[in-house]
Design goal:
By secondary structure, this protein is α+β, with helices and mostly antiparallel strands. It has four helices and 14 strands. It has two domains: about 70 residues, Recoverin, domain 1; about 90 residues, Immunoglobulin-like. The two termini are about 30 Å apart. The N terminus is likely disordered. It comes from Dinothrombium tinctorium.
Length: about 210
């Protein structure tokens, strides 16, 4: 059977369990058959899960039975856990503040795929100015754009308001107007700001770009 394979079985189970009673019945499987369609040449239907995987023959699939069905197909199933205290996290911020929002989900044996949404819109599909998306292990570049009649200016780079300098991961180039961050990890996600100062160390302005690593 070919399903739209989600990275964790627990999420798929929750989507199929429409009434949230902790088990899946034949009616719920039938309703979702239009969403999780098999390949055209496949004789299987989503409803075939129940007669084949209902080990205790109670006409329901609990999570253990559902997981066992996938264990027969895939050797590595990601189990996702999130502490209840972290399920809802409220952050207060003021206009102009830099805010970092973390998703502390743990997956075994591998890290789950994390997606970010705002007002039920997938952020990867939103074109936001100064928002950069990069993959884990990749390379990201952030440019600083400014105009000044003063030829003697200094550019300093900050991540989430903390001063950063060149190191094994970060390269500062083009007269300090560009940084490149290599071997990206999720911890590199944040707001990167270049702040321009004159020779008297007076702030002249800043440019901010947000980097999201997935």
């Amino acid at each position: 059977m070919s399903l739209v394979l989600l990275n964790d079985v627990s999420l798929l189970f929750t989507q199929l369990d429409e009434n949230g009673d902790g088990s899946i019945n034949i009616n719920e499987l039938w309703k979702k058959s239009a969403v999780y369609k098999p390949e055209p040449a496949s004789p299987c239907l989503l409803t075939d899960l129940l007669p084949h995987e209902d080990s205790n023959e109670d006409d329901f699939l609990d999570f253990t039975e559902f997981q066992n069905a996938f264990n027969k197909l895939y050797t590595a199933i990601t189990m996702v856990t999130l502490e209840q205290s972290l399920a809802v996290n409220t952050i207060q911020a003021h206009i102009g503040d830099n805010v970092e929002i973390r998703c502390d989900i743990i997956g075994k044996p591998q890290q789950p795929v994390i997606k970010w949404f705002r007002h039920n819109v997938d952020l990867t599909s939103v074109n936001v100015p100064n928002l950069k998306w990069s993959a884990i292990g990749g390379l990201a570049a952030v440019d600083c754009r400014y105009e000044s009649l003063d030829s003697d200016v200094k550019v300093k780079w900050y991540k989430n308001d903390e001063l950063i300098s060149a190191n094994q991961k970060i390269t500062i180039m083009h007269n300090e107007t560009r940084i490149e961050i290599g071997q990206l990890t999720r911890s590199d996600t944040g707001a990167y700001a270049c702040r321009v100062q004159n020779e008297a160390d007076s702030a002249m302005g800043q440019d901010i770009a947000s980097l999201l690593v997935q």
